[in-house]
């Protein structure tokens, strides 16, 4: 679908207005009313089930925190809700088409995330992908996003991406990370290919949602073939046709494609045939300990043979033990990546 205006990072309103809530169950409605009345608010009833809560300027985040504490995550997700500023048009039909209450609650908790995305306060850490035969010659770098707070302290991806998913800001964070990876790899004068993670569920309309990515590459005068877009979280892909349309747009613009975590689940294997990537990355759970674990060794050896048959270049990631590297090298893996060789860093590590 088309998404004009979707690149603008949504902000939690701070003015006066009305919060409309459509609880899914009567007990949730009763819990909401009890919490609001206990806070001195008087919700009005619209029809049989819609609650209208008057909101004073600057009070929406406090009300969201109140409801977040009163309702379980499941109850929040089951409620539809939206805030309308004073003077805005509202009808029951507009409420039915809006977002779950848990998204509004999350956005009130993660105001810092909106600001971070809008300001592009991301630092990309680059991890070398090296040739398997010598373990020293850098073939490429993978860019990995870290957030920066106002004091310049790092915010880990383990905090960054779950917050974005909860607040329905994954598209905006994914876009910001793509732009930051392109800019910072250029600033660091990286000559090798750069792998950039992207979550296909964060893309709505490929032609529209990816245009800023393409524009940034053209602005900097970089050969698009220098970037490899790496499909992550493959098991969350439910629409293979949509994914193929995204990757076709990447390829049409001259970029290359990698499939991450091959062997992590059925999803990645079914996608292999569909998207025909330029690179596949073996799942780190299979790679770690492959030299002594016969079960992992059997599966990994099969995946390597399959990759060779398909003429796809193979990257093994997550290598921490030299014995695993030697095992993989002997079976024809093209490239390797992991703490054994270098940790992600900014500026990018240079191997001797």
UniProtKB/TrEMBL annotation:
Residues 106-352 form the EAL domain. GO terms for molecular function: cyclic-guanylate-specific phosphodiesterase activity. It comes from the Bacteria. InterPro entries: Cyclic-di-GMP_PDE-like, EAL_dom, EAL_sf. It holds the Pfam family EAL. SMART domains: EAL. This is Diguanylate phosphodiesterase. It comes from Alkalilimnicola ehrlichii (strain ATCC BAA-1101 / DSM 17681 / MLHE-1).
């Amino acid at each position: 679908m088309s998404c004009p205006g979707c690149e603008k990072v949504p902000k939690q309103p701070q003015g006066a207005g009305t919060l409309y809530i459509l609880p899914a169950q009567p007990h949730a409605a009763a819990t909401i009313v009890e919490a609001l009345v206990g806070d001195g608010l008087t919700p009005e009833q619209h029809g049989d089930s819609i609650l209208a809560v008057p909101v004073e300027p600057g009070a929406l985040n406090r009300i969201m925190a109140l409801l977040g504490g009163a309702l379980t995550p499941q109850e929040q997700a089951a409620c539809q809700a939206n805030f309308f500023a004073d003077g805005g048009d509202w009808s029951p039909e507009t409420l039915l088409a809006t977002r779950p209450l848990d998204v509004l609650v999350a956005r009130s908790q993660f105001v810092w995330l909106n600001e971070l995305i809008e300001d592009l306060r991301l630092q990309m850490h680059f991890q070398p992908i090296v040739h398997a035969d010598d373990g020293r010659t850098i073939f490429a770098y993978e860019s990995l996003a870290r957030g920066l707070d106002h004091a310049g302290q790092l915010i880990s991806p383990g905090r960054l991406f779950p917050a974005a998913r909860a607040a329905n800001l994954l598209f905006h964070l994914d876009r910001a990370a793509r732009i930051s990876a392109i800019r910072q790899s250029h600033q660091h004068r990286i000559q090798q290919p750069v792998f950039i993670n992207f979550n296909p569920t964060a893309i709505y309309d490929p032609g529209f949602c990816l245009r800023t990515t393409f524009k940034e590459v053209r602005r900097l005068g970089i050969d698009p073939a220098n970037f490899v877009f790496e499909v992550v979280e493959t098991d969350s892909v439910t629409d293979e046709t949509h994914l193929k349309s995204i990757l076709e747009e990447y390829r049409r613009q001259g970029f290359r494609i990698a499939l991450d975590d091959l062997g992590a689940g059925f999803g990645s294997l079914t996608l292999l045939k569909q998207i025909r990537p330029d690179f596949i990355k073996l799942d780190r759970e299979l790679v770690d300990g492959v030299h002594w674990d016969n079960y992992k060794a059997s599966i990994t050896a099969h995946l390597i043979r399959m990759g060779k048959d398909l003429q796809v270049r193979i990257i093994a990631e997550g290598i921490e033990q030299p014995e695993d590297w030697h095992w993989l090298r002997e079976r024809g893996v093209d490239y390797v990546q992991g703490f054994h060789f270098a940790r992600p860093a900014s500026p990018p590590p240079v191997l001797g």
